[in-house]
Write a structure and sequence with these properties.
single chain; 6-stranded parallel β-sheet
């Protein structure tokens, strides 16, 4: 099972740490604020008060044995860069870092971050798409050109098979999954029927997603 270390337990870091722990993963949370650490102590596997910019401290905590490092340090860009660098040098396979802005993100990628997250920008993108169409529930940008969206089925799709809807030809989109109540149908087949209340998880080029948004 993968082990995660989350450095910086502000709102964003705490949310990630708690979610991973609730999914059954081993999570070590590190923050310099004793109060924050105390508040998290019952919500994750281990919460430790420490200065994450000190390489020896991270070594002593056994951070190098973790599979994934998540750097979600708040406003201190210098500390964020330094900790990301330390984690990569310690040999952590996959490092995710939160960026304040595009320039910060570029630096994080340059020093070896495997993935950079822009919480404010990404949330802004999701909210904007949700405002454009009430049927768009979630929007995840995979790259500047491709995204994944969750769409509530519209009445004209009810009781039709995926083959009849022909999303790929009509809209240039691929249906990856169908959410139905508590169930998720992954890689649905052409003869699967769309029902009222279904949520379609689709992937495609942003320009094709935008066309669909206008249609629905």
């Amino acid at each position: 099972m993968k082990q995660f270390v989350v450095i910086g337990l502000g709102r964003f870091g705490a949310s990630i740490a708690k979610t991973l722990y609730n999914l059954g993963y081993d999570v070590l949370g590190i923050d310099s604020d004793e109060e924050i650490v105390q508040s998290m102590s019952d919500s994750i596997t281990h919460a430790v008060q420490a200065d994450a910019t000190d390489e020896n401290t991270l070594k002593a905590l056994g951070v190098r044995n973790f599979d994934v490092g998540i750097v979600s340090i708040g406003q201190d860009i210098q500390a964020s860069i330094l900790v990301t660098l330390i984690l990569k040098e310690m040999g952590i396979k996959f490092v995710v870092a939160k960026a304040q802005n595009e320039l910060h993100g570029k630096v994080l990628y340059k020093i070896g971050a495997d993935r950079v997250i822009f919480p404010e920008r990404d949330m802004g993108i999701r909210v904007a798409h949700n405002l454009v169409s009430s049927n768009i529930l979630d929007y995840i940008e995979l790259s500047p050109d491709f995204s994944i969206v969750e769409i509530t089925a519209i009445p004209e799709w009810y009781d039709k098979t995926l083959k009849e809807l022909d999303m790929r030809v009509k809209h240039g989109l691929n249906v990856m999954a169908i959410k139905r109540n508590e169930d998720v149908l992954v890689s649905p087949k052409a003869d699967d029927v769309i029902l009222k209340g279904d949520i379609l998880v689709v992937v495609g080029q942003n320009k094709d997603i935008e066309k669909l948004e206008k249609h629905i």
